[in-house]
């Protein structure tokens, strides 16, 4: 199986969790994209769901698929969110935000009774941190916020690098919320809870890509088949 087939198989298993009448959160990224496509197929076959997309990209895909959409203002509590991840460990702690959608993804996951992660086996790690941690910041005061973050990181990662994410045009990447992203290359995050607490205490930090205590289950596609972690049902 190639990577896309693995992503599709994890997404297909997650789609089996979807029931008529559910309120769903739709994740963002190349893995979640498969899930949205399968939900679209099911909707066209008669499935009744309402969905909240976690990004403008997912909203556009879902609209094209004919999936009925709602908002967290209309529907503040969701039954299930299915989303990808950039990394996950065996305690279902995640790094997300490689595609820049972390803020909406975290709001939607937190509004959901269950969050199930779908991923191929390359995303599973023993210790989070190989993937640079995305930190979403307000453009106002960027330099001051960046220095405050660097000070926090330097206590445990003296050689950490913090890089402003840029788009293909060389300009700063702008999130759906109008913010910038700083990517922190840390390699190993032994105590993600401690780091998360320190990051959210910095004015100017809007959100970070550590998803802790949010995922209830995971479906990981491997060459040998699907591996399930946590609770799916
Ligand atoms: O901002 C993007 C999201 O957090 C994605 O869920 C994450 O980057 C994983 O994306 P992919 O499935 O494309 O690896």
TrEMBL record:
Gene3D superfamilies: 3.30.70.260, 3.40.50.1360. Pathway: Carbohydrate degradation; pentose phosphate pathway; D-ribose 5-phosphate from D-ribulose 5-phosphate (non-oxidative stage): step 1/1. InterPro entries: NagB/RpiA_transferase-like, Ribose-5P_isomerase, Ribose5P_isomerase_typA_subgr, Ribose5P_isomerase_type_A. Its EC number is 5.3.1.6. One of its GO terms (biological process) is pentose-phosphate shunt, non-oxidative branch. One of its GO terms (molecular function) is ribose-5-phosphate isomerase activity. Keywords: Isomerase. SUPFAM superfamilies: D-ribose-5-phosphate isomerase (RpiA), lid domain, NagB/RpiA/CoA transferase-like. It catalyses: aldehydo-D-ribose 5-phosphate = D-ribulose 5-phosphate. The keyword Transcription regulation does not apply. Substrate binds at residues 28-31, 83-86, 96-99, 123. The active site is at 105 (proton acceptor). Catalyzes the reversible conversion of ribose-5-phosphate to ribulose 5-phosphate. PANTHER family: RIBOSE-5-PHOSPHATE ISOMERASE 3, CHLOROPLASTIC-RELATED. Homodimer. HAMAP family: Rib_5P_isom_A. Belongs to the ribose 5-phosphate isomerase family. This is Ribose-5-phosphate isomerase A. It comes from Chelatococcus composti.
């Amino acid at each position: 199986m190639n990577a896309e087939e693995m992503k599709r198989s994890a997404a297909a298993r997650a789609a089996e969790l979807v029931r008529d009448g559910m309120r769903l959160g739709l994740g963002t990224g190349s893995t979640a994209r498969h899930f949205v496509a399968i939900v679209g197929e099911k909707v066209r076959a008669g499935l009744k769901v309402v969905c909240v997309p976690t990004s403008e990209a997912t909203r556009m895909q879902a609209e094209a698929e004919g999936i009925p959409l709602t908002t967290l203002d209309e529907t503040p509590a969701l039954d299930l969110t299915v989303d990808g991840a950039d990394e996950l460990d065996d305690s279902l702690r995640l790094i997300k935000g490689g595609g820049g959608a972390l803020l909406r993804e975290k709001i939607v996951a937190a509004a959901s009774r269950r969050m199930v992660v779908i991923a191929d086996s390359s995303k599973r790690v023993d210790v989070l941190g190989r993937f640079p941690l995305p930190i979403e910041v307000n453009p106002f005061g960027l330099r001051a916020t960046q220095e405050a973050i660097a000070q926090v990181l330097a206590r445990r990662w003296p050689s950490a690098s913090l890089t402003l994410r840029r788009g293909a045009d060389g300009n700063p990447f702008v999130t759906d919320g109008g913010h910038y992203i700083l990517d922190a290359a840390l390699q190993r995050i032994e105590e993600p809870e401690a780091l998360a607490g320190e990051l959210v205490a910095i004015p100017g930090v809007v959100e970070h890509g550590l998803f802790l205590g949010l995922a209830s289950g995971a479906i990981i596609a491997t060459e040998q088949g699907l591996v399930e972690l946590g609770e799916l049902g």
